[in-house]
Hints:
Layout: E1 2-6, H1 9-21, E2 26-30, H2 43-54, E3 58-64, H3 68-71, E4 84-88, H4 96-100, H5 110-123, E5 129-130, H6 138-156
Helix pairs in contact: 1-2, 5-6
Amino acid sequence: MTAATFSNVEEAIGFARAAKAAEVPCVISMVAKDGKLNDGAPLASAVTRIDAATAQAPLYYMVNCTHPTEIEVGLTEGDWTNRLGGFLPNAVAMELLSLCSLGHLEDGDPGELGGQMAALSMRFPHVHVWGGCCGTDGRHIAQIARQVSEARTSVAA
């Protein structure tokens, strides 16, 4: 079971505990604008706190609904990054409520987003879930898939 767009540690802990009690494997995906959840927890702290409170119940963690430039500051070094399994970015760096109230999709530059995700794939070669969130469409997903694949192929060669 995957639950996305968690914005605070306590709700993610509750979800992980419920999944564990039901014996259902789970994945938690969080919004991390400026590298922090809405409750102020840095991404590293959120992952380690959830793991500590749930005996590592989540299979892995993802970050969604956040542009790569907003995630980057929270991707601090440490063993906690081994728990990351996916990135599902927004097409543009823009505050979520503002993005949702535009009345149209703000799609940014699909090629640029693909390049940013390729850079993340080089930094986190163990991450295998790549996708998109707000404002992304087939063009973005195609660029992410192509550029992540090319980046990983160049490293393997």
